[in-house]
Structure formats: C-alpha cells, structure tokens
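Dear Dr. H.,

I hope your travels went smoothly. While you were away I took the liberty of generating a structure for the chain from your last submission, since the lab meeting agenda had it listed for discussion. I wanted you to have the full record in hand beforehand rather than looking at slides cold. The sequence, exactly as received, is reproduced here:
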Amino acid sequence: MYLSQGQESSINTDLLETIIVSDARSFAQDPRFCLSVMAEIACRALSPAVNDPGTAIDVIGRGVRILSTYAQNKSDEIEVKYPSVHVAPLQNNDLLEDFFSPVARDGASMREIQIRVLKGLSMLSKGWPEIFAEAAHTLAFETLEHATRADHIDSDRYLIKSTYYNLFSGEYSNKKHSCRASNSVVGKSRAKHSRENGRMLCAKSKRC
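The corresponding predicted structure, in token form, is as follows:
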C-alpha cells in the first residue's frame, strides 16, 4: 500500500485496519482464484486416473455462466466514492486464460472437450465482444493448436477444425490463415529462386 507524500501516519494505521489479510485466498476476495479452482476440477476429471469428461463438460458450462454474469454486471460507469484510492482492476484476458487454457491443454486429446471449449469461447466472444472477443480468439487458436498436436483420428481432427473455423471465421482468424498462407508462398518462392540460381551456376561452370 502506498500513500501520497505528506499524509499523516494515523491515516496509514486507519487504512491498514480496513484491509483483511489471510493465509489463504478466498472466492469472495479473489475471483480469479474461483476460476482457477474450477479449471483444476475440470483438469482432475480429465486425468487418466479419473477419466470423467462429463464432469469437465459440466464445469466448462458453469464457467461460461459465471463469466457471462460477470460481463452482464460489469460497468465502466460506476460512482467513484473515494477518488484518491486506487485498486487495480480485473483483466478480462486473465479471467479467460485462468479458466480455459488449462482445460484446453489437458483435454487436447478429447474431441468433445475441445469442441465444448471452442463453443464456450464463442458464446462469450459474441455475447460481449468488447469484453471477451480478443482473449477468446487468442484462446480459441491455442485450443486448435493443442488439438492439432494431439493424437486424433482424421474425422475428429476435421470436426474440431471445422468447429473452429465456423465459430471464429472473422477478421482475426482470417489474418492468422492469411499469414500462414503468405509464409507458405514466400517459402515456395524462395525455394524456386534457389533452384533457379543453382541451375544458372551449373550452366556457367559447365560441371552439372
């Protein structure tokens, strides 16, 4: 806690008495802790020892509802009672990452989990784009990468990719796709140029 210069020491004591310090985090004090615990429940359900994707799917749905409620009640136009007191606000991208990123990672090999994660991110992105769109698109692409590297049969991999492109086919996805396509074209152009240079050198040396 920092005080402006020139403040009396008695104010420091009064302010410290209003702050609750505990040995453990709580849901009421730390909303990110709540989302992290829910993600841990889902990841535990996805572990080989438990193998319960149904519980993970249920947790994903609950997480989406909690984040939806947060977005519905979030307002930038609130009455500031104490303008001299500043508390760092919650970052929307942190909220989504705390919840979705571990589940997408641990459920990478399960088609139903990846699809449910993508649908949950899409609901939040389209429902409250000004709050969740940027982070949701980033995490959706991360989910697709996890699925691409996992051991899926071709039909499952195709279904996951189709779900991603159907839900996130906007400007962000197009930029990603265009960037990859552009890199591929550049690579082919460089290879062709290298081959042509090789032929020219061979022709000049008359050794090829």
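Two observations you may find useful: The chain is about 70% helix and 0% strand. Residues 1 and 16 are 9 Å apart (CA to CA).

With kind regards,
E. W.
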